[in-house]
Design a protein that fits this description.
The protein is about 70% helix and about 0% strand. Helix 1 crosses helix 5, helix 2 runs antiparallel to helix 3 and helix 2 packs parallel to helix 5. The chain starts with about 40 loop residues before the first helix and ends with a helix. The chain has helices at about 40-55, 55-80, 95-120, 120-130, 135-165, 175-200, 205-225, 230-240, 245-250, 265-285.
């Protein structure tokens, strides 16, 4: 017969308490990076980083350069090969055809500069980092305008130089050269800025691009189907003040005998762009994102 084990008496001694580690008191953290309030320069740097890092910028401006330079050189080469008489034609006017198509690319980029952020939701992050909505829109407009102006001016200048060296047309003076290069660059950049404002209002890429193509082409299309004599004045106005007709004024090849001349189309576009930008500022301040 086995003897049952003797129960052990419980140990009532308390385990030694562990003292918490002593943490030295630290003062307030001071970052080694100098801190300063964000300003307009920071907004410009942010928008420049965005516009140069997305593929749409490279594609749209690249296609624009190809169209303007390619069509300009094709026209000059064709006329030279055919030995066509161009003595009475302004020698800078042959770059017009490529520029009309190239301006569509600038319009597309202007729309995407604003609508892409609304589509992806990045605009919320942008406005969190920079709560001033007017500052954000101003930075976008500034960066886009300078980029579009620089690319368009350089491209049209290259086309003008090459065409004048290949063709013997009507010689152009200094004012004609300035309008066909710098004037055209300003006009197309303002047209792209107009598109940027439309994109900020519509906030939808396809809708804004469609609206801008309508602004560019619809007056010509509507005017072509106005056969009534009572609508002659309306048809003439549509032809005269359409975007392609105003661009042709810079090349001294206006399709109508009346209407804007010289630098007049630029002042018209400045007024239109200022008005639509005002609407874009008001819309951005009042609507949610």
């Amino acid at each position: 017969m086995t003897t049952p084990p003797t129960p052990q008496a419980p140990d009532h001694r308390q385990a030694p308490q562990q003292r918490p580690p002593v943490v030295p008191e630290l003062g307030p953290y001071t970052s080694p990076i100098p801190a300063r309030p964000a300003g307009f320069r920071d907004a410009l740097a942010s928008e420049w980083t965005k516009i140069r890092s997305v593929r749409s910028t490279l594609w749209t401006l690249g296609i624009m350069v190809v169209l303007v330079v390619g069509l300009g050189l094709l026209v000059a080469f064709t006329l030279r090969l055919a030995d066509s008489p161009v003595d009475d034609v302004p020698e800078l006017s042959f770059g017009f055809s490529g520029l009309v198509l190239g301006s569509i690319c600038v319009i597309t980029l202007g729309v995407l500069t604003t609508t892409s952020e609304f589509g992806t939701g990045l605009i919320r992050t942008t406005l969190t980092a920079c709560p001033s909505r007017s500052r954000v829109l101003t930075a976008k407009a500034t960066v886009f305008f300078l980029l579009a102006f620089a690319v368009t001016t350089v491209t049209t200048t290259v086309v003008a130089v090459v065409q004048t060296s290949m063709l013997d047309g009507k010689a152009a003076d200094a004012d004609a050269w300035l309008r066909a290069t710098v004037g055209v660059g300003l006009y197309v950049a303002l047209l792209g800025l107009f598109s940027l404002a439309v994109g900020a209002i519509v906030r939808h890429s396809a809708g804004a691009i469609t609206a801008m193509i309508g602004v560019v082409l619809l007056p010509l299309v509507v005017g072509m189907f106005m056969f009534s004599e009572s609508l002659d004045s309306v048809r003439t106005a549509l032809f005269t003040y359409s975007i392609p007709s105003q661009l042709s004024v810079f090349y001294d090849t206006s399709v109508t005998n009346s209407g804007p001349t010289g630098w007049d189309p630029l002042w018209i576009m400045i007024g239109m762009t200022a008005a639509i930008m005002g609407v874009a500022y008001a819309t951005l301040e009042r609507r949610d994102v």
